[in-house]
């Protein structure tokens, strides 16, 4: 398994507060990884750095076989490289239908001129329908996504992420606000996705992390505190101290 | 389920957007009706000056269409599109003035004992045109004024390029929302103040005049010319409508509406938001330039006051009153408000005598317009276009007041469809 993303020695501070402190992180090209940590550990900032929203003060972020640096790329360029992101709060285009949302996300040329002349082929439409079925929204294809429930929006966003066919998925608290049955379905989707691509899940819920059954990275005060299986990290003295405040 | 999904998105463009057919039909009927009633080729019930007013109105509808594309669909509240409109007018006006003055100068030199040299003719034209600002030479900006094709190219290229450079600088720095509006307004003000100067090369506050007289067509009566321009304006509006409707109908429309509501999210999908904004901004600037080039020969005169920021603010008001984010709304708003404005400011509206005070509409019209704008924004955000929703029974979603996206230009609850 080769390394898909390599973050090394990254630091960033906001007005003197070190949100990320000499962070080093690696993930392979078909790997699932859970990132846990208390509030303020730097989980969201970590994702912001990878997706180009925040520029680090120092360190490097290298991507893919050719180890290109992501630091000089724009957000849209990074997304085109194959990094998809799901936000904590579901963000879908509420004024547009489920089908339109999925069609927007579908992996295609992204330039204005090619989009202007784009007309969906039968294959594209079938892909949209398939995705909608996977995320349980097949009967809601032509509903405005603003009408969907919170959980359905979460799924639509996961569906949009899958439509992008990214090589790396960054998922921020995918199970927040979901019923147990919905959580189970989400777990299946993520585990399935991780067979062919890298998936990083940021999550608070230990039970959900356990179900993912993957390697866990614990963040604390902007750097990696521990890494390994869930049982390994939860028996780590430092982790217990941070989480339980002893 | 799959069958429904496939068939409903496979319907043709026209079927999915019946409003395009209705619009073109109404525009065609209107054009035929005016032609029959006008003096040029018809029975002469409508005066030539009113035909010109109607033709100008069609041009304003076209620029409103551009404004709706950039603001209603892409969420960029530009307060500078009337500057592009004015630039288009100046570009065509330069040729009109040059070519007509050239004919006059040549005629006046016919009687001279020696045939005039090109230099004498050029000096003669320059003296005629720039006498009012105390100059007698052509400024460099007039280098192409002798050529109709080059000035027509300028109608498209100058607004397009200015928008491209300005947009590139602004969008690249991620200037959005009210700051972008202020910036576009500053650009407009700067341009208008520059043109007010006598040494700007465009005759300062005199502007360009006599544009209604087409060179070489002095024998053709204005009643005929007015109808020809009316047709050209109707054609431009019809074409503009179809092109805009086609643009917003597909995935491109989906992307720009997504940018309007939540541009950060669009970036993470891999779309370069800046490139899309730049494309829309420049494209609509070109439409505005073309509309201006058709408008000013009908108006007869253009001066820097036409480019002042207030004109662009009016444009936004028209689109808001007509209904933002739907193309026919913009057209209806522009036609309705500008015709009403002509009526009120033309002194035809009867004054209201309140006993202690007489309301004179020439002065009070602006206040009435301002109040209607506030009222529409507060109570009927869908504008006049929203009346059509009563027929088609479209309703807005119940979102407890939340907009449809986090961005300042995002559709508001009451502007959206369920």
Description:
The complex is a heterodimer of chains A (246) and B (418). Chain A is an alpha/beta fold and 246 residues long. Chain A has a single domain, classed as P-loop containing nucleotide triphosphate hydrolases (Rossmann fold). Chain A is 37% helix and 26% strand. Chain A contains ten helices and ten strands. In chain A, the strands form two sheets. Chain A has a six-stranded mixed beta sheet, with helices on both faces. A four-stranded antiparallel beta sheet of chain A has the order 2-1-4-5, with helices on one face. The radius of gyration of chain A is 18 Å and the shape is globular. In chain B, strand 3 and strand 4 form a beta hairpin. The longest helix of chain B is centred in the N-terminal third of the chain and has 29 residues, at 81-109. Chain B contains 16 helices and four strands. In chain B, 66% of the residues lie in helices and 2% in strands. In chain B, the strands form two sheets. In chain B, strands 1-2 form a two-stranded antiparallel ribbon. A two-stranded antiparallel ribbon of chain B has the order 3-4. The interface between A and B is large, with 45 and 38 residues.
């Amino acid at each position: 398994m080769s390394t898909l993303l390599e973050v090394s020695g990254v630091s960033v501070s906001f007005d003197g507060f070190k949100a990320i402190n000499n962070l080093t992180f690696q993930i392979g090209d078909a790997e699932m990884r859970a990132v846990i940590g208390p509030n303020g550990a730097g989980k969201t900032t970590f994702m912001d750095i990878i997706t180009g929203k925040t520029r680090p003060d120092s360190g490097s972020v290298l991507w893919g076989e050719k180890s290109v640096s992501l630091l000089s790329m724009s957000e849209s360029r990074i997304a085109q490289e194959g990094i998809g992101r799901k936000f904590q709060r579901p963000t879908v285009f509420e004024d547009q239908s489920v089908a339109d949302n999925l069609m927007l996300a579908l992996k295609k040329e992204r330039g204005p001129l090619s989009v202007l002349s784009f007309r969906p082929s039968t294959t594209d439409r079938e892909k949209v329908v398939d995705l909608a079925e996977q995320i349980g929204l097949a009967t809601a294809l032509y509903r405005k996504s603003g009408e969907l429930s919170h959980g359905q929006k979460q799924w639509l966003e996961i569906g949009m992420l899958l439509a992008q066919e990214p090589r790396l998925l960054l998922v921020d608290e995918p199970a927040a606000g979901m019923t147990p049955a919905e959580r189970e379905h989400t777990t299946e989707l993520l585990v399935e996705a991780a067979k062919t691509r890298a998936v990083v899940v940021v999550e608070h819920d230990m039970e959900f992390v356990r179900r993912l059954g993957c390697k866990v990275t614990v963040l604390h005060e902007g750097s990696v505190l521990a890494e390994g299986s869930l049982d390994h990290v939860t028996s780590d003295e430092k982790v217990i101290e941070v989480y339980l405040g002893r | 389920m799959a069958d429904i999904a496939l068939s409903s998105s496979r319907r043709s463009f026209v079927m999915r957007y019946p409003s395009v057919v209705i619009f073109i039909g109404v525009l065609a009927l209107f054009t035929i009706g005016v032609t029959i009633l006008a003096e040029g080729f018809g029975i002469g019930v409508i005066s030539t000056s009113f035909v010109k007013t109607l033709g100008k109105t069609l041009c304003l509808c076209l620029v409103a269409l551009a404004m709706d594309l950039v603001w209603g669909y892409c969420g960029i509240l530009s307060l500078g599109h009337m500057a592009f409109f004015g630039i288009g007018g100046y570009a065509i006006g330069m040729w009109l003035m040059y070519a007509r003055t050239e004919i006059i100068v040549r005629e006046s030199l016919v009687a001279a004992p020696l045939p005039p040299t090109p230099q004498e003719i050029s000096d003669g034209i320059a003296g005629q045109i720039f006498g009012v600002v105390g100059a007698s030479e052509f400024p460099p900006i007039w280098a192409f004024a002798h050529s109709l094709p080059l000035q027509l190219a300028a109608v498209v290229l100058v607004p397009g390029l200015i928008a491209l450079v300005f947009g590139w600088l602004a969008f690249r720095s991620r200037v959005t929302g009210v700051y972008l509006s202020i910036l576009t307004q500053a650009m407009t003000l700067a341009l208008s103040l520059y043109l007010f100067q006598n040494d700007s090369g465009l005759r300062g506050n005199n502007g360009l005049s006599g544009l209604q007289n087409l060179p070489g067509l002095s024998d053709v009566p204005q009643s005929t010319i007015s109808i020809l321009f009316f047709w050209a304006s109707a054609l431009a509006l019809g074409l503009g409508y179809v092109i805009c409707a086609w643009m917003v109908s597909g995935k491109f429309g989906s992307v720009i509406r997504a940018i309007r509501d939540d541009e950060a999210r669009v970036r993470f999908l891999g779309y370069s938001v800046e490139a899309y904004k730049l494309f829309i901004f420049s494209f609509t600037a070109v439409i505005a330039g073309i509309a201006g080039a058709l408008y000013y020969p009908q108006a007869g005169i253009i001066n820097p006051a036409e480019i002042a920021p207030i004109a662009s603010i009016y444009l936004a008001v028209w689109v808001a009153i007509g209904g933002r984010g739907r193309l026919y709304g913009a057209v209806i708003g522009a036609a309705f408000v500008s015709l009403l404005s002509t009526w009120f400011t033309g002194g035809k509206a009867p004054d209201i005598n309140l006993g202690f005070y007489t309301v004179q509409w020439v002065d009070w019209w602006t206040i009435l317009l301002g109040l209607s704008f506030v009222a529409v924004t507060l109570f009927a955000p869908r504008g006049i276009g929203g009346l059509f929703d009563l027929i088609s029974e479209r309703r807005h979603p119940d979102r407890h007041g939340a907009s449809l996206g986090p961005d300042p230009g995002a559709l508001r609850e009451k502007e959206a469809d369920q």
